[in-house]
Amino acid sequence: xxxxxxxxxxxxxxSAVIGVIGLGYxxxxxxxxxxxxxxxxxxxxxxxxxxxxxxxxxxxLKHLGEDFVRDMVNSGRFAATSDFSRLAEPDAxxxxxxxxxxxxxxxxxxxxxxxxxxxxxxxxxxxxxxxxSTTYPRTTREVTLxxxxxxxxxxxxxxxxxxxxxxxxxxxxxFDTQSIPKLVGGIDAPSGEAAVALYxxxxxxxxxxxxxxxxxxxxLLENIYRCxxxxxxxxxxxxLTAMDVDIWEVVxxxxxxxxxxxxFYPGPGLGGHCIPIDPFYLTWKAREVGMPTxxxxxxxxxxxGMPDYVVQRTTLALNxxxxxxxxxxxxxxxxxxxxxxxxxxxxxxxELIERLQHLGAQVEYNDPHVPATHKMREHDLGMTSVPLxxxxxxxxxxxxxxxxxxxxxxxxVADHAKLVIDTRGAMRGVKGRKDHIxxx
Length: 440
Known about the structure:
By secondary structure, the protein is of the alpha/beta class.
């Protein structure tokens, strides 16, 4: 029996041990999916606080709920650790680490590189490694593979390597890790077959593709598609606002067509770990092969310019009311990048706050899902959410709606705020006067 056949046999029997590196918005739901599939699972993360909370049976990602971590701990089939020497224990390892951009919009693969090096130190015959972190085509082959083969083991014979892109959408109710179809592409045929066998035990539908590169490129296409279409409606918002036409009504009218149109909505900028970042991975790689990506770069330029547009609209609206932005008290509603979650990764709200503060405004925020900010790679606001009441609303010169959480009472905001800058179309349904509401 070959090593690959032995590994697949362990997977299909449920006796394989599965490891997940990076227990964030991607890794923790994936770990849960493998555990629900009946496997013994080991989670790895460099953050000791995450390990401490998980070991106590507590979840730090509120949108996933609390009970599942306690259930995993009580099952005896779960362990969480910062000890990467234990990477020899799992039969299959999924890499779910960040892939951010550098200061010049270049890919930062340092997390993938360090994780691959850590796996290489304990790599043993028969192990399967799957990269899930979004990146440009050939990363698995050109970055991870040589690091794993440096010790003498050969991919496809001694160990197996594949790419399977994450497709998480935090807070979504109609799909989760187990129900979202899973793309899987191997570095070689034996690796692809082993990875397909693994994910079939945890995910309802597995979609094999011919190579890791196809899977890597498909993930980028998914996010570039959204990036370009969001840029289109953002540009239309600017144009139609100048014409005094409601972009939200326009989009809702267009989406009544039952074919040939999919609705996308404008906003104050892009947020989350995927759409603001992933397209630039392809533009960078395209330059390496001498090919332009004008469409993608234009979309990025438009979307990255939206916070400036919002600040400009805010400045003009205050000026029309005899107020300078310098010294004005501004309340930003919503710190998370999307409604009804606590995820602030790449949130345009953070950029808006920093730009307003730079102009001299006194800025505070309210977010029912984010009681306090935490230090991030590029930002450290050091702020806490303030109460949102009729009394507090009256104390601000301007309320800026950045995230349309379902918990917000928009009528209360309309009734008590002096000036509202609405970047999400949240105030379109309120009753009474609207001359103090400005779209942005």
